[in-house]
Amino acid sequence: MTTAANAVHSAQQSGGRAASAASARQVTKAYGAGETRVTALDAVDVDIERGRFTAIMGPSGSGKSTLMHCLAGLDTVTEGRIWIGDTEITGLKDKQLTQLRRDKIGFIFQAFNLLPTLNALENITLPMDIAGRKADAAWLQQVIDTVGLSERLKHRPTQLSGGQQQRVAVARALAARPEIIFGDEPTGNLDSRSGAEVLTFLRRSVDELGQTIVMVTHDPVAAGYADRVLFLADGALVDDMTAPTADSVLERMRRFDGKRTS
Amino acid sequence: MLLKTSLRSFLAHKGRMILSLIAVVLSVAFVSGTLVFANTATSTFDKLFASTASDLSVSKAVEESDQNGPPRGVKPATVPVDTVSRLAGLPGVRTALGQVFSQSTVLVDPVANKVVGPTQGAPTIVGNWTDSPRSALDLTSGHLPQGPDDLVLDADTAAKAHLGLGSKVRVVATSGNYDFTLSGIATFRTTNPGAALAFLDTATAQKTLLGEVAYTSVDLFGDGSRTDDQLKQEALAALGSGFQGKTAADQKADGAKGVGSFLDFMKYVMLGFAGISLLVGGFLIINTFSMLVAQRTREIGLLRALGGSRKQVNRSVLIEALILGLLGSTLGLAAGLGLAVLLIQLMKLLGMNLDASSLEITWTVPVASYAVGILITVLAAWVPARRASRISPMAALRDHGTPAEASANRIRTVIGLVLTALGVAGLGAAAAAHKAADGGLPLGAGIVLTLIGFVVLGPLLSTGVVRVLGAALPALFGPSGKLAQRNAMRNPRRTGATAAALMIGLAVVTGASVVTNSMVSSVNAQIDDSVGADYVITANSPLTPAMADAARTTPGVRTLIEQKQLQVTFGTPDGKHPKSPLLVVTPNFTEGFRIPAVSGRTEDALGGGISVDQKFATEHGVKVGDRLTVDYGQGRTQSLPVGVVTESGSVLNGLPFTSFGTVAKVLPADEIPGDDQIFGIADPGADKDRTLTALQKSLETYPQVQVQDRAGLKDLIQSQVNQLLYMVYGLLGLAIAVAVLGVVNTLALSVVERTREIGLLRAIGLSRRQLRRMIRLESVVIAVFGALLGCGLGLAWGVTARKVLADQGLDVLTVPTATIVFILVASAVIGLLAALVPAFRAGRMNVLAAIATD
C-alpha cells in the first residue's frame, strides 16, 4: 500500500464522521466462503463530505460499484458499519432501508432510470408520490429549470433522447431533496456532449443547491467535475485526490495502471 | 440444430410455460375424457343389449310415431296369449316366451312412504319373470315370484332403497295400488343402465299391468337353423297382419337410440365446453409466446445477425409451441382418462352404472387429443412466431431488451369494428324477427360475430376502458394505483387477450342468466296473470284416477281441473298434416285459467270443439268454425270444429286444447293416458293454507306426487331453472379457471419482464407492500375489464335472445342485476387471487439483482 493511501487512511480514522453525509467504517464485502471466497471490499473506511461532489474511481473489479451499493443501502455488508447522516444503516430491515432510500437518498443509474409508463414530470415526482409527500412547487420548478426540461415534461421516456432521459433522472434525484445522491456511471451511456451536460447539472446542483453527490465512474473526464476523487483497487481505498482535473485524474489512473501491470 | 435450440429454449423457459401447459392439459383432458366416457358408455350398453336381446320380439303392430311406447299411463298394446303357441310351433324356433312389461307404474316403499327406483331419466319397468336364455339378470337371493304376493327387484334398486327380502313393495298402476312382498333379489349380469326392474309372476303381471290375460310381446329364440331376418319373415307370415317383429339387431338399435340420445347430448355439451376452454387456453398461449418472443428480441436479433433466416426463427418458435402441444396433449390424454372415471362415478350417482374398469379407448381418442392440443398451441403461437421472424438483426445491437409495445393497429381496429357492427346487426335482426325460428340464425351469427369482434377489438377497448376504470386508482391507492393503471394500459394487446379469455366465460354466464331469469319471471307473470287455480298436483309418473279421487274428496277443495296430453296429427284446411301435442282438459278448464281469445269462444272449444293458437291459425289459414281432422293414431280420427283461436303467449304455450268428453267419443278408455297435471280450486270460504296441507295429506300415500300452491309452483319453476343454470355455471367454471390461469400467467410474465423496473422502483423507495399492491391492482383492473366486457356482451346476447324467444313465452325481460354485480365483484376478487403469487415473487426480488438484470 502506498504512503499516500496510508495517509488518507489515518486522516479518515481521526476525522469525525458527524460532519459526513455518509460514512463507512471497516466495511468488508465478501462473496462465497472458504477457498472460493472473493473479497470485493476489504476493510474500507470512507467519509463523504456534505455539500460536495465525490467521485469514486477504479478499474473494473476494483469494488467501486459494490462500495456505492453498500453505502446506498442497496447491498448488505459482510462486516463493518455504514451511516447515512446520523443513521446507521447496517442491520436495518428491508422496510426501514426502503424508507431510508425513499426519504434520504436519490439515485441515478447508468441506464433504465425511468419508468416507461410515466411521463417526464411523473417520473421526477415519483419518489415523493411513493412517499406520499407533496412536491415543493417552487423547488420543483427550480430543479426543472436547472436541468432545462420545462418543454418536455409531458413526454414519455421513449420520446426523449438518452441525454434528456438522464437529465430527467437527475431532476428526479434532486427534486426530493435527498441528503445524498448516488450516481452509478450516470454518463456511461451518453455521448460526450450529453455527458458533459449532465455532469454540469450535477456540478451546479452541488454549487448552487448545496447537494451532496457520490458518483461511481471510470471516466477521468467525469471525475474531473468532482471536488474529490477516491481511488479504489482490489477492494481497498488506494488514493484520495482533491480538486481534480481530468488530466490529473488520468495521470493518476495511468500511474495506477502502470503499478498494477509492473 | 434448430430442434436443439428450440428444445433448449423450451427447457430454459419451462417455468414460464407451466401455466400454458396446464391450459392445454385441461382442454385436452376434457376432449379425451368426454370421448372415452362416451365410448365406454356406448360399448357398455351395446354389450348389454347384445347379450339380452332375443332373436325376434313380436308385438302388436303400432305406427311409426308410437314406436317409443304408449303415452304415459296408457295400457301397453298387447298380443293374444295364443300367439306364443302359434310361434313356438314354427320351424327353427327353440323357445317362445310371452312377456308382460309396463313402464307406466311407480314402485313405492309403503313403510318409508318413498318412491323406489329412479325419479327421473331412467324408467321403472315392471314385468313378468321368464326363464329367458338371455336374461339380463340372475336371481341372487330369495326365490322367483310364485304367487300374487311375490315381487323380485333388481339388486341395485333394492340396495338404494334399503329394501331386503320380506320388505313390502307397492306397485302404483293406473288401475290401482298393489302391495307385494320382496321375495327375491336379482342381479344384473353385465351392467344396470340405471333403470329399476321389478318382476311378478306372469298371471299377476297380466292382472296388475294389463287387466287382461295377454302379453305385451313374445320373445323368440331360434335353434340356429335360420337367420333372425328369416325368422321374422316366417313369424309375421304365420301370424297374419297386425303384428310387428323386431330382430336382435333392431332391438339393439332401438336400445342404443334411447341411451344414445342422452349420451350424445352429454357428449356435445361437454365438447362444447372443451371448445370454450380451448379457446380461452389459446389466448393464454398467445400471451405466453408473445412475451417470450419479446423478451428474447435481442437473442433473436443476434441469431439473425449471425445468419439465421426468418424462416428458421419462425420455425424455432413454432417448434417450441409444438413441444408444448405434444407434452400438453400427452398429459391431457392421461388426465382425460381420470376425468372419464370421474364422469362414470358421477353417472353412478345419477343411477347409470358403468364399469370404470373397462375404459374403452379407441384410436379416435389419442388422435383427437393430439390433434386438438397441438393444433391449438401451434395456431396460438403463429402470430408471435411471425412477429419473431420480423425482428431485425439490428435488435441485437439495441440496448433495451424489450421493444416498445405496439399499440392496437389500424387494420385490426377496422376488422374488429366491422365484425362487431355485423354482429350487432345480426342481433338487431334477431330482435326484430317475429318468430323464434326466424330469429335463431341471426342470433347465433350475431353472438359469434360480436364475440370475435370484441376479441379483435380487445386491445383498443383496453386502452379506453382501462383508462376510465383505472382513473380512480391513483386517487384511491396513491402511487401504486397510478403505476398499476399505467401498467395495465402499457401493452393493450396483452391486456386485451388476457381479459378476452375471462370475457368469454362470463359473457356466456351473463347471457344464460338473463335468459333464465326472464324465463322465471315470465312464467311467474303468467301464473299471476292467467292461472286462477290454487293448487297444482304433479308427478314424474302419470297421475291415476285414484289420486284424482283422493284430491277431489279433500275438504276445502271445490273442484279439480284435470289435464292430459296426447300426441296427434292434424289435418288442416290447407292440406297440411302438422303434428302437435293436444291438451285434453275437463270442461271446467276456464274456471282455473284465463284464456285470452282472438276470436270465437272458449266454451265452444270445450263443448265438442277444439281450440287453435293464433300462430297455428295464421300459418294454416284456420278460422273459427273451420273443421280440423284429428288423428290419434291406430286409425282413430275425429273431425272437430274450431271453437276458439287463442292468443299466442298464454299459459297454453301455443298448444290446442279440447275436452275429455270430445276425445272419449273416439278413444276407448284404456287408450286415454293418465292425467299430466291436476289443478285444484279451493272453496271460496276455505283457508287456502289449510287446504294445501289437507291435499298433501290426502295424497300422502303417493310419494311420487307433489302438491303445490301457486307460491310453491313458482319456487318449483325457479328451482328447475336454477338446476339448469348451476350446470352451466359449473361447466363454465372450467373456462373461467383457465382464464384466471391466464391472468396469473400474464402477471407472472410481466413481473419477469419488468424486473429492472421493479428494481428501480424499489431502489427509489417503493416499499414491498406498495409494490405488491401495484401488481394486485393491475390484476384487478385486467380482471374487471374482462368482466365488464363479458357482462356487456352477455347482456346484449341475453336481451336479444329473450326478445327472440318472446313468442315462446319469454315475454318479461329480467336483468339479473344481483348476478351481474356479483360477477363484477367476483372478478375483482379473482384479480386479487390471481395476483397473489406474482406479487409475492415480485416483493421477494432482490433490488440489486433486479437492477443488474439485463
Secondary structure layout plus pairing:
The complex is a heterodimer of chains A (262) and B (854).
Chain A: H1 3-14, E1 20-31, E2 38-49, E3 53-57, H2 64-71, E4 79-84, E5 87-88, H3 94-104, E6 105-108, H4 120-131, H5 137-147, H6 162-175, E7 180-184, H7 192-209, E8 213-216, H8 220-223, E9 228-233, E10 236-242, H9 246-261
Parallel strand pairs in A: 3-8, 3-9, 6-7, 7-8
Antiparallel strand pairs in A: 1-2, 1-4, 4-5, 9-10
Chain B: H1 2-12, H2 14-52, E1 56-60, E2 79-80, H3 82-88, E3 93-99, E4 101-102, E5 106-109, E6 114-116, E7 124-128, E8 137-142, E9 150-154, H4 155-160, E10 168-173, E11 176-188, E12 196-200, H5 202-210, E13 214-215, E14 217-222, H6 228-239, E15 243-247, H7 248-295, H8 297-305, H9 310-349, H10 364-389, H11 410-432, H12 436-470, H13 472-490, H14 492-530, E16 535-543, H15 545-552, E17 557-571, E18 579-585, H16 589-592, E19 597-600, H17 602-606, E20 610-613, H18 614-620, E21 627-631, E22 637-646, E23 657-659, H19 660-664, E24 675-682, H20 688-698, E25 705-709, H21 710-753, H22 755-763, H23 768-804, H24 817-844, H25 847-852
Parallel strand pairs in B: 7-12, 9-11, 18-23, 20-22
Antiparallel strand pairs in B: 1-14, 1-15, 2-13, 3-14, 4-7, 5-6, 5-10, 8-11, 9-12, 10-11, 16-24, 16-25, 17-18, 17-21, 17-24, 19-22, 21-22
Helix pairs in contact in B: 1-9, 2-7, 2-9, 2-10, 2-21, 7-10, 7-14, 7-21, 9-10, 11-12, 11-23, 12-13, 12-14, 12-23, 13-23, 14-21, 14-23, 21-23, 21-24, 23-24
